[in-house]
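Explain this record to help learners:
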Amino acid sequence: MKFADRLDRFGEEIFASLNNKKLELEAHGRKIYNLSVGTPDFRTPEHIRKALTEAAADPENWKYALRDLPELLEAVCAYYKKRYGVTIGPEQVMSCYGTQEGVGHLALALCNKGDVVLLPDPCYPVFQAGSFLAEAEPWYYPLSKEHDFLPYLEDIPEDVARRAKYMIVSLPANPVGSIARAGIYDEIVAWAKKYDVLIVHDNAYSDIIFDGIKGGSFLAAEGAMDVGVEFFSLSKSFNVTGARISFLIGRKDVVDAVKLLRSQIDFGMFLPIQKAAIAALEGPTEMVVEQCADYQARRDALCGGARAIEWNIPDTKGSMFVWAPIPETYTSSMEFCMDLLNKAGVLCTPGASFGPHGEGYVRFALVLPPEEIAEALKAVKESGII
């Protein structure tokens, strides 16, 4: 049987490949420090788990949802007003089964074959996958050390900008850990208006920013609602990754287009999960702040600990990831990643899997406590790989 040509654009999923290698080594008794996949190891708050289990006990909640509950939409609006100072209406919100699904559906709803979309490089792989599903043509704008791993609009050619359908921006950024500097969202809004480009902001890590800086929303910038939408995820702030709770928020015509597409292939988010989302949005948030401090302790243990063994890894500014330059003796991030795993038992992700400009780096996820990170760095030092 001949399958769809679009499948030819997808390679083997890197995290599955690395996990298979990890399992192979563990089967031989090796201790592996898994810093690859960004799945939080913190416990989901009790009030969220309780809301889900209580809702699941009601037989009525096992029917098709067919829509987002009005109380869920109101909870998102209230949260955005309180947390980000952004006023939105329920008609500007829709749920998604995670941002990963949302990005794919957005591309399908917005793009025709051959449309140009602007993607950061390096970036989270689903940004590229979404464009491939829609048969759009990605154009990659580099996130470079010279510009603090931030979008540098001056480098986007005018002819590309005029042909672009949308541009994905992600701050704090996965995998590079950069955060929005003052004024950058205003610059992006002005650029988007000039070239009539939709801005799609991935706001997954605004609660994981370090050194006393408070994260915000792209939609808080003046004029952002005219040119943009934002994916807002509960996964990392509230440790509900498996529940797949995300929202597309912002310009109503864009939200409506994605709603129309989704209505053809989905019957709505499982009602107990909607109830859990309401509990997260309306419940206490002290644990979110405390958790950020825990992530910073892990950041300090990894980056500071690496520098202590003469591996110069700069402090990441935000997200739950560290973007680490590979030693000068290596030219391939995959080769270094595999040596690090085989020789030190430390599992990370090669930077090249996030795009061409990711070569020369590896990504660590801050998913182990500081004491285990210290053990991992001791193993790295003893391996002699640095």
Summary: Residues 286-308 form the longest helix (23 residues). Residues 63-282 form a domain with the Aspartate Aminotransferase; domain 2 fold (CATH 3.40.640.10). The chain has two domains: 5-43+286-383, 63-282.
